[in-house]
Amino acid sequence: MLRLEALTLSYGDRKVIKDLSLSIEQGEKVAIVGASGVGKSTLLAHIYTQLNSQAAYCAQSQGLVDGLSVFHNVYMGALARHHFGYNLLNLIRPQTHRINEVSELCSALLLDVALNKTVSELSGGQRQRVALARALYQQQSTFIGDESFSSLDPVMAQQLIAQVLSRHPTVIMVLHDCQMALNYFDRIVGLQDGEIALDAPSQILQPEHLIAFFDRKVGSVSDNGG
Ligand SMILES: Nc1ncnc2c1ncn2[C@@H]1O[C@H](COP(=O)(O)OP(=O)(O)OP(=O)(O)O)[C@@H](O)[C@H]1O
């Protein structure tokens, strides 16, 4: 499904991803781990450009439209699935079954807010769940997520990850929680200095194998990079 061969990604002269090769098959659940600044988001954004029309992407930046309601932001996930006129109708005067779909999705993500509330009024964790709902509402076979649960408490994060995994055959996700990566994902890819330093089935890994991918200090890559 995805083949990256000797991939190098740079910002200006600075190489962030270096000569990286990675294959991911349909049906895999892959956690990408690594210290802050190591290149996870850069890699994930590139993976999304490769899979584009087959994948839903929940980026770290969220990309919510602050002045619009929860419903409108979530409905945007469906824009590519419907005709322009149908979308316009639903954005102006939403159909009851679309409201029900969005409402059920928000409930499944434990997002208990009025659908007509503007997202600028929401907390960080609520905004994160709106962004997640919008990605799930794309109803793609592959989910690409970049720290989608970073501002949520661990119990809620586990429930949300279960929702993501049950709705997508293939999941590629950056995670900052070692135990969650081991418990929920089949395969762990660990990045260090823009290269793959670990690529193994989670069933053969213990938390101590992952310490290096969660403990390094911010800025360690920039000391070595490009
Ligand atoms: N638009 C950009 N222009 C220049 N440098 C960038 C840009 N985006 C990221 N970088 C740099 O590239 C490196 C990798 O960034 P990236 O966001 O991919 O790391 P990350 O592993 O996802 O980090 P974090 O876990 O903190 O989100 C960092 O040193 C970052 O400062």
UniProtKB/TrEMBL annotation:
Database matches in SUPFAM superfamilies: P-loop containing nucleoside triphosphate hydrolases
MF GO annotations: ATP binding
Residue ranges of domain ABC transporter in the record: 2-218
Matches recorded under Pfam families: ABC_tran
Top-level taxonomic group: Bacteria
Keyword Lipid metabolism attributed: no
Nucleotide-binding listed as a keyword: yes
Keywords for this protein: ATP-binding, Nucleotide-binding
Protein name per UniProt: ABC transporter ATP-binding protein
